[in-house]
Amino acid sequence: EPEVTQTPSHQVTQMGQEVILRCVPISNHLYFYWYRQILGQKVEFLVSFYNNEISEKSEIFDDQFSVERPDGSNFTLKIRSTKLEDSAMYFCASNAGTLGQETQYFGPGTRLLVL
Amino acid sequence: GDSVTQMEGPVTLSEEAFLTINCTYTATGYPSLFWYVQYPGEGLQLLLKATKADDKGSNKGFEATYRKETTSFHLEKGSVQVSDSAVYFCGGSNYQLIWGAGTKLIIKP
Fold it and tell me: B6: nearest CA in chain A?
């Protein structure tokens, strides 16, 4: 069964450094999402992406964040200058149908630790 | 704005007990509703979903019914197992998936 994959599974970085989290959505899916989950807290929506542009974004998704689909398979989340509070599990998701309405399939997550 | 509220955990039950985890939503229109499960050390997996009023989602012995009149989507299971121990997230979706805070379920043998 097709699945969403994410790399790396864990990343440790120094505060102020740039990180790029990578995701490979399911191949025929059209809508892509990033979420984060700070340890022990709820899952939070960051951004949705369709047709090579951002569809929706939350207040968390400020100018330090950007997303890109550099080729036909990858979907990346870049944090330009990491802060301690960016430490979280980051989940990528994708779905085939209408934005938000269809089942979103999640990757296993990337655990980011900012020191 | 849209929101999802679910009961706080942890919920601790003995094996074979009946489970209910409450979830209510506030949204414009009628969102699709989901339950996701996160097993220890793993990512999020869809457990079940319902896309319109009176729909019942079911999977692995879990059920939830989309109740428009009470704006609820409570998760139930008749007889829980130790392997059901996980964090359960209720979610509602119009254009983005809005999550509840998660309910940690602990099942003791």
Answer: A42
